């Protein structure tokens, strides 16, 4: 019998280990061919910035080299848009004539629609399409309330997720794939970062995660965003660590991974969020301020709120921002400046190396109180109190706002007008107390209209 060919289209699954489609291909003895289609115009249209594009390109190049080292064919092509990527794929299918095409499902609207078109092509060409749910752990169709509806609240979703998966054997590692990751590849580096986190920081995760100057979290989000790591790998190492470490910390970390799944699930079941709408549609009628100077000050870390400015400058330089600060700065944009959350969402996507539509949209809508299971609109963080609580010595501010580095731990969170002038640091562009009242008014007006 001649060996059958399986074509794997890699998208946000740029790894060779713990890869469902590769494991399947190996198990069934297929001749494997891989491909990746560079869709820069589409990425740009989705607001991905240079950092994320660089990651895609380097990871795709390494993937190609891994395949080739294992003697496997790999096609790396420049396609432009999703529409064009479908044409490229179609031509590849005609040329290779695979028995099967394998994909890891993606849940956001444009990606879902693209894959529906791919399914049509496969039907026309007589190619069997294999779709694996590997970007998240469970097919979103399989998690539903007792009334057979999609969940809209995180905690019952998480409990249902755990009831389906937290059994021995369910979260087992996948068998090793045929190609090996290259020694110094992004995939290897991500695996090492995960192992190092588990060995050194996981135990203290629940106490440390919000204290952002301590770097107590895993920092694996950019690896998860383009699939250098799989969520399965993260759960497997965390489960293995349960015996040695503080169980509460391990489960807390796993719950964060489940938040990531929850937001992808929301994009899938409520695709209006992918069209720029509020999850809670009534909030689309909110009237936002229109002030490009404020937006500019926020983007460039010049608001006069040290924690917000430190966060924004960190993002600009590094492409990363710790989670607590993402919440603080997102609330500041929407509740202190009264600017539309979509402007912040867009800016984050352009800057973040881990930019991921669902997590970003979910985080922004949570902070703006327009989202699924979001912060209630009257819960408004005070950026100065948040700074005192989670960066008590002001170390993070000192690192990113060096003009304030000479101030004491007490003054650095909110310097006096004189200190600001002496340090060359801006006066605050808004007053928190007043801005808070205006936001409460904005939401109340909507509720009574
Ligand atoms: C306004 C806002 C925007 C955000 N934008 C993004 C984004 O574009 N991409 C992104 O990956 N995350 C985003 N997040 C979620 C979170 O801030 C990052 O995932 C986290 O900071 C990454 O750091 P880590 O890998 O050290 O996380 P850890 O705390 O070690 O968590 C492990 C993993 O769990 C997932 N995770 C953790 N917290 C969340 C969360 N709140 N929501 C969804 N997934 C989570 C991430 O994949 C993360 O890598 C956003 C949060 C907010 C409030």
Automatic annotation (TrEMBL):
Keyword Transferase set for record: no
One GO BP: response to light stimulus
Gene Ontology molecular function, alphabetical: deoxyribodipyrimidine photo-lyase activity; DNA binding; FAD binding
Binding-site list for FAD: 205, 217-221, 253, 256-263, 354-356
TM stretches of this protein: none
Cofactor(s) for this UniProt protein: (6R)-5,10-methylene-5,6,7,8-tetrahydrofolate; FAD
Domain Photolyase/cryptochrome alpha/beta: 4-137
Annotated cofactor note: Binds 1 FAD per subunit.
Keyword annotations of the record: Chromophore, FAD, Flavoprotein, Lyase
Keyword Transcription regulation appears in the UniProt entry: no
InterPro entries per record: Crypto/Photolyase_FAD-like_sf, Crypto/Photolyase_N_sf, Cryptochr/Photolyase_FAD-bd, Cryptochrome/DNA_photolyase_1, DNA_photolyase_N, Rossmann-like_a/b/a_fold
EC annotation from Swiss-Prot or TrEMBL: 4.1.99.3
Site residues by UniProt (Electron transfer via tryptophanyl radical): 288, 341, 364
Family to which the UniProt record says this protein belongs: Belongs to the DNA photolyase family.
Protein name: Deoxyribodipyrimidine photolyase
Organism in which the protein naturally occurs: Gynuella sunshinyii YC6258
